[in-house]
Design brief:
The complex is a heterodimer of chains A (263) and B (317). Chain A is mainly α. Helices cover 80% and strands 0% of the residues of chain A. Chain B starts with 8 loop residues before the first strand and ends with a helix. The chains are: A mainly alpha (263), B alpha/beta (317).
Chain lengths: 263, 317
């Protein structure tokens, strides 16, 4: 890819980031998320010996949940908003392949989500520093959990984008949330199905497990709670699988986007 | 520009079928459009709402794909990224990123054009100056008026110093001053050697600035050519204005309608407006007014206008 191509993709990415940071809805969500992370201290207070672990659990879960909300709702609007507001007309008429639009929009949103995750993480670290007692603090397993949450958010964003290239924003949101729920549950469903006598349920669970990416791979909060690092090989495998999954969904988004009419 | 290519835009047998709604209702938007735009001409693309103007423009710009037929710009098939570098486009309604400031907006599109940093700043400042928005460079587009949006839209269309400029309804929603400014910009583009292809339904503007027009209706081209070729050459009517035409003189003037069908007299204040259907009737009116001591203020022969062409050719269907 040459410099001109990179400049065009970066222009779209930066514009997406600028669009998001000038959108007040995002700030509301972020403020709420930071408050929730702060409240994780209260949750910790409710326990006797595990205060720090409960706080870490609640804090990382808040980052994950609010990150997912951002990824879904910003992700589905990345393409649909351009089509709805017809800003896509001038952009498609410019000398840049349509695929640049998908890549640029995706990168722009990942920068936005990255900044938001970073702000939530800073609030979370503040909580950890404030808390007295033993347990996980600013250690690699905590960073590792946050990085994997970010990778999961990137996957969800790519899925939301893929859906939004051919569907309405509402349907895209529903499809993406279903994807997240199934992705988070597919491993559990498979484990349940092994014990089932119903062959339909067993095979169904196997198909679901094979088709929908297993998002629990990216939820490694327990390692953070017990301050344990993932084996490097496993971490690399999870990251590569994540990147491959993102590539597949972005490729689907690009193929659909390449062929669609902007009426 | 590559001198070897022939027409700047070449469209042959272009068809577009849309399938709309849950039951995929078939709508034929274009039914075999043929069109050529020559180098350095201003071609007006005319037609009533739903005629297929915007659909044709969208195919040229690669926003939608044709169902059949061929379309090329600057000698290459539409959709070619290299060709898009040399084509500027202003969409029908100025839909832009309203959270951007004027200068940011142009800088963004300049980056998409692949223009380097030093050149970007220069080009942006030049274009803001050209469209008269230098003072609004730091203002967010959401605070721009319709006319300002149209002008900033024109500036983005010209970012890549295009050989061909495609404008979809550029006069739409503009006040008389805005329309005049837009006409001047379009004239200026022609003087710079560019080709302008624009759709419009504001017919007086088209009459003033176009070298040729192409009339499209119900997805098919009805006429293409110079206005003098398309419009009837003969005088359709003569408008005369008199002062001092009152009482008996006015009654006698009105009586001329018995001799000349379609002869009409209307009085507005001190002014009598006479519409004569031909030169004989106009001569009779002039003589009568002269005999009665009335004064002829103006005499204007009226040839067919685009508006009357539209009413004759298209409204009848």
């Amino acid at each position: 890819m040459n410099n001109a191509a990179l400049m065009k993709i970066w222009a779209i990415a930066f514009n997406t980031f600028r669009e998001n940071i000038r959108d007040k809805i995002l700030y509301n969500l972020l403020v709420f998320a930071v408050i929730m992370i702060g409240l994780s201290i209260v949750l910790g207070e409710l326990t006797i010996a595990e205060q720090r672990r409960i706080t870490v659990d609640a804090g990382l879960t808040s980052i994950s949940v609010f990150g997912i909300l951002m990824a879904v709702f910003l992700g589905i609007s990345l393409v649909s908003k351009e089509i709805e507001r017809k800003t896509i007309y001038t952009l498609i008429a410019k000398p840049a392949p349509r695929s640049f639009f998908i890549i640029g929009r995706f990168l722009g949103l990942m920068i936005t989500i990255g900044v938001n995750v970073a702000i939530m993480a800073v609030a979370f670290f503040g909580v950890l520093i404030y808390l007295p007692g033993d347990g996980p603090t600013l250690t690699w397993p905590v960073f590792q959990a946050i990085l994997l949450i970010y990778l999961e958010l990137a996957i969800i964003t790519s899925v939301a984008m893929a859906f939004s290239t051919f569907s309405t924003p509402t349907l895209s949101a529903i499809f993406t949330l279903c994807f997240v729920i199934i992705g988070r549950l597919t491993e559990g469903i498979l484990q349940f199905s092994v014990k089932s006598d119903n062959p339909f349920f067993r095979h169904g669970a196997e198909v679901l497990y094979a088709v929908v990416p297993n998002l629990t791979n990216y939820v490694q909060i327990e390692y953070a709670l017990y301050n344990v690092s993932l084996p490097l090989g496993l971490l690399a495998k999870i990251v590569l699988t994540g990147l491959l999954t993102i590539s597949v969904f972005l490729a689907v988004a690009m193929i659909v986007f390449q062929r669609r009419d902007f009426v | 520009m590559d001198e070897n290519h022939g027409p700047v835009i070449s469209v042959k047998g272009l068809k577009k079928i849309f399938f709309i709604g849950f039951f995929r209702r078939r709508v034929e938007a274009l039914r075999g459009v043929d069109l050529e735009v020559k180098q350095n001409e201003i071609l007006g693309f005319l037609g009533p709402n739903g005629a297929g103007k915007t659909t044709t423009i969208k195919i040229l710009l690669g926003l939608i794909f044709p169902s059949a037929g061929e379309a090329a710009m600057l000698g290459k098939p539409v959709g070619n990224v290299q060709v898009k570098k040399k084509v500027g486009f202003l969409p029908e309604h100025p839909y832009f990123y309203d959270y951007l400031k004027g200068a940011e907006f142009l800088d963004f599109y300049a980056r998409i054009h692949g223009i380097n940093k030093a050149e970007r700043k220069k080009r942006t400042d030049e274009l803001l100056e050209k469209v008269g928005l230098s003072d609004a460079a730091g203002l967010a587009l959401r605070k721009y008026s319709k006319g300002m949006l149209q002008r900033i839209g024109m500036a983005q269309a010209l970012l890549g110093d295009p050989d061909l400029v495609i404008l979809d309804e550029p006069m739409s929603g503009l006040d008389p001053v805005g329309r005049r400014d837009m006409r001047e910009i379009i004239y200026g583009l022609k003087e710079e050697g560019k080709t302008v292809f624009f759709s419009s339904h504001i017919l007086p503007d088209v009459e003033q600035i176009c070298d040729r027009v192409c009339v499209i209706h119900k997805g098919k081209v009805r006429d293409t050519g110079k206005l003098t070729d398309i419009l009837r050459p003969e005088v359709e009517k003569i408008d005369l204005q008199f002062t001092g035409l009152e009482g008996e003189a006015l009654r006698q003037m009105e009586k001329l309608s018995e001799v000349h069908p379609d002869f009409r007299v209307t009085v507005k204040g001190e002014m009598a407006l006479v519409v004569a259907p031909n030169w004989d009737a106009a001569e009779s009116a002039k003589n009568l007014a002269s005999q009665k001591g009335a004064r002829l203020v103006s005499l204007q022969p009226k040839r067919e206008t685009l508006e009357s062409y539209f009413l004759r050719e298209i409204d009848d269907e």
